[in-house]
Amino acid sequence: MCAVDAARGKYLTASVIFRGKHISTAEIEEQTCALQNRNSSYFVKWIDSNIKTTICDVPSTHAPTSATFLGNSTAIQEVFLRISDQLTAMLRRKAFLHWFTQEGMEEMEFIESQSNMDDLASFTFPPSPFNFVILNDSIHLILCDSH
């Protein structure tokens, strides 16, 4: 887990896993659809049906019913930026570097890692003009209206 403001990004995909007896599949689907409609601004438009649900009728040992949400959000870039800033400060001071170089690592490996982290942090997700739809186990690409 990490501290990130999900409202500052867009969800690419999400999965909700429900556990417990007597969970209504119809109600789950209805609530999931309502959730996505109410919060459509937080989801990318170019991935159709990007919330998936799973129901396990075996309850956990701690609660009769439970739900777990897993989301893949572009807001993770904030975390990458924070890590990159912290890594830059540590490399500038060469803090703790000797512990790693004594074990055989080279300083260049850290510089390369920092470059990779910067690449992740600067990656943007432009709006796509396409939707992907799965029908009969095949993927169909649909060009969206640009208006």
From TrEMBL:
Domain of life, source organism: Eukaryota
GO cellular component, one term: microtubule
GO biological process: microtubule-based process
Keywords tagged on the record: GTP-binding, Microtubule, Nucleotide-binding
Gene3D superfamilies linked to this entry: Helix hairpin bin, Tubulin/FtsZ, C-terminal domain
Domain annotation Tubulin/FtsZ 2-layer sandwich: ranges: 1-84
Pfam families registered for this protein in UniProt: Tubulin_C
Gene Ontology molecular-function annotations: GTP binding; GTPase activity; structural constituent of cytoskeleton
Cofactor(s), by name: Mg(2+)
PANTHER family: OS01G0282866 PROTEIN
Similarity section: Belongs to the tubulin family.
Protein name: Tubulin beta-2 chain
Organism the protein comes from: Toxocara canis
